[in-house]
């Protein structure tokens, strides 16, 4: 069974950094594009970033460009999101998902999410 498990979310002060991880199992991770999504309190699901299967091409929503970096380790079946210069508006539940690189909100499996809270 294909499964994604996120970790790394916590409470952090504005300006701080976090690194989220997503462990994949049950499918051939290296053959799929992956993405990070987030959902802030009272808001809809938002695409944050995507990466192609080889880890060569990446894309970001404008609000995180220059602050977040998506990467992957195909040998370890793990997806990452390095988040720097965090802002209060980055507070959300962050999900990793498997889906098309060209369709931001298209996915067929998603993890349970990890909570990121940015607050002083």
Q: Could you walk me through the main structural features you see in this protein, from its secondary elements to its overall organization?
A:
32% of the residues are buried. This protein has no helices and eleven strands. 0% of the residues lie in helices and 48% in strands. It has 120 residues and is mostly beta strands. Strands 2, 4, 5, 6, 9, 10 and 11 form a seven-stranded mixed sheet that branches. The mean pLDDT is 97. The protein starts with a strand and ends with a strand.
Features:
single chain; 120 residues; mainly beta; seven-stranded mixed sheet; 0% helix
Supply Rg: 13 Å
User: Based on DSSP secondary structure assignment, what is the total number of beta strands?
Assistant: 11
Strand content: over 45%
Q: Could you give the order of the helices and strands?
A: EEEEEEEEEEE
The 3D shape can be described as globular
**What integer is the average pLDDT?**
97
Q: Characterize the largest beta sheet: strand count, sense, and whether it forms a barrel.
A: 7 strands, mixed
End-to-end Cα distance:
40 Å
Structural class: mainly beta
Quaternary state reads single chain
Helical stretch tally: 0
